[in-house]
Design goal:
alpha+beta; 3 strands
């Protein structure tokens, strides 16, 4: 009887912790902004090494999934989706402006 109750109730000390709650849209957007900045760094490092932009993100050494990369001459743009929003980072964008409140959102995630 006790065994059946444990199987039905599944206390955390038996089943382990449950899945974490889903991230808010603001936290997902902040995470994406950091990912896009990292990808831009890979592209800029590739340009520094080779003198030309990569044809693809993979050529720059990226393994990121779901990130768009578009070239226009020497300029480029990276993009991705967070919820219903598409976030775009251009090669000429300011890091501080692009990040905005993202670091604070990530630091405070999970807090009320």
């Amino acid at each position: 009887m006790v065994e059946i109750a444990l199987l039905v109730l599944r206390p955390s000390w038996i089943a382990g912790p449950g899945a974490p709650p889903p991230e808010s849209t603001a936290v997902a957007a902040a995470s994406l902004r950091l990912t896009l900045l990292h990808q831009r760094g890979l592209v800029l490092e590739y340009i520094r090494r080779t003198g030309r932009p990569p044809a693809t993100l993979a050529e720059a050494g990226s393994r990121a999934q779901g990130i768009g990369y578009q070239r226009s001459g020497d300029a480029f743009a990276l993009s991705g989706h967070a919820g219903d929003s598409m976030i775009v980072l251009r090669s000429t964008d300011s890091v501080a402006t692009f990040l905005g409140e993202s670091l604070a959102r990530l630091k405070n995630r999970g807090r009320p």
